[in-house]
Specification:
The protein starts with a helix and ends with a strand. The strands form 3 sheets. Strands 8, 9, 10, 11, 12, 13, 14, 15 and 16 form a 9-stranded antiparallel sheet that branches. The chain is mainly β. It folds into 2 domains: about 110 residues; about 170 residues, Porin.
Length: about 325
Amino acid sequence: MKKALAFLSLAVLALSSCQTVVNTARTADTQSDIKSITVADLKVADQRVTATIDPVAKDLRKAGEKNVKQAVEAKALEMAGGADVLLDPRYVITQKSGLFTGKKITSITVSGRPAWYQNFRTLDDSVWSNPTFRGIAPVYVRKSGSGRSNVFGAKNFREMKEPAFRHRGFKIYTDLYIGGGQADFDAKNGGGPGTHKEDVELAPMLTASFGYQFGPYFYLGFFTGFQMNKIKNWDTPYNHVPVGYDLRFNLSRSVNTWYAGLKMGSAIPVNHDSEVDKTEDQILVIPSIGYSWGNFNLGIYFMHNEYEMKYKYYGWSSSKMKYTFETWGVNVGLRL
């Protein structure tokens, strides 16, 4: 029994005398915004100063670790000759653990660079009103191909990387298509001009597209316009009014960039002499690729236009004709 009591007493004594040393390091907190138009220079000492509180008074310890750190910082500033601020403070904290009292700080040491405020002055109005200096306007840094860094204001940087006509919003695109190709006439039910192919000498088309620009890359709109197919050795051209959707994709954010376009919809015939009963199966597809110089673009295209028409003759007989126009050429465009 006596051996057990002796062992318990030794254990309590060991727990009550256990000490822990904690090392910490941090940078001094600084304000990123300006509270006053009065500024000053900061003179920083070359040598670090070290201050220690050992032992830490009971009243100070009960106030918390933050207050203990402030007390040792104040001692270090006093040792430096009344410095204003202690930069880069580093702490060494010794703690003691008791059986019933928990951890408590027994000593603390701080090391840092003392600094003094000097040369207090008022900012010039032109400097104070600069939004970049006040932290209101962000500054963007872009690395050029030569490896140097260029600094631009927010507005200029955006205009350089993303042209105004590719910002989000409603836009208008106009395109002129000039080319030629082939027309296929396929008569059914014994009527019409027969089944044969003809060369399309000239197939100009002018379109206007109204839609929304989703940032610098995507555009989606609705287009309409006027198309003419001049058939070789035919006096009367086949004219159409195209309508449909317009999708454009730019390959980069730059002012000059490659692009791809796709128009999909139908083309409504407008100059057939016979009495038309019904027009059906209308298909119009125009893929294109090209290069854009700012608001102007130049590219190549392929156009497939296909539809069927039912005719009435003298109010009783009828026939069906399938028309297929395939043309290709050059297209030029302008962004408004």
